[in-house]
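A quick aside before the break. I want you to see a complete sequence-to-structure record at least once, exactly as it would be stored in a machine-readable document. Don't worry about memorizing anything.
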Amino acid sequence: MFIQATITMKLFTFHFAKISTGAAVKTLLRPPTGEQVPGLTHAECMWKMTLGAPILSPARMQLRHLTMFAAWESQSAIDDFLAGTQLGRAFASGWHVRLAFLRRWGHITEFDGLAEIVGEQDPEAPVVAVTLARMRLPQVPRFIRWGRPVEKLVRDHPGVTFAAAAMRLPRTVSTFSVWTSQREMIDMVRGHSAVPQPERHAVAMVERQRKDFHFEFTTLRFRPIAEYGEWEGRTNIVPNRN
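That is the input. The structure line, written in tokens, reads:
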């Protein structure tokens, strides 16, 4: 059973869409707000990136691939946005997943109202993980050095069905990953996965504790409710336990 995290943050979505570069830039400069979109609590719009891609490559920052991570008051608010706004219709042509909040670690101002943990924590259930960070710009080279091995670990992990990164200049970075089970994700975080160099995430976290890359950072864990559309020919990205 999903337990509401706050009065207004009842549901979350993560969207992927292909739009024109001009429209993507306009959206990043002026993302949707609750004043413009009824029922929207907060939205983070970013360019999609390929996890583990070389820093100077077209795959690293895909200017026509837009992502949005958003908190909503209701399912109907999501539906109205997708059907009734120009940006929403663009996202409706791509893929998105609707999410129920489970757990928070760390801090981002826009999501301060979230509890640390709510609802059931089934270790064998599919889970979606979202990280969101505001970078300390002088720490970007260190972040890249320690972060890219972790990106490759997540990208290639057998427990992941889909993973991507995203960013909005100059400071915001994010990752999104869909896992076959919460257990697989936790094993990866702790360095216990049966993969080459399983300790990469744990080692990076030690380095982050030594000297933080960010001035704000949070990892959010969600139970996927439903997915819609397709992304690059793929559907059924969220694992089905049945």
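Two observations worth writing down. The two ends are 18 Å apart (CA to CA). The CA atoms of residues 55 and 71 lie 30 Å apart. We'll return to this after the break.
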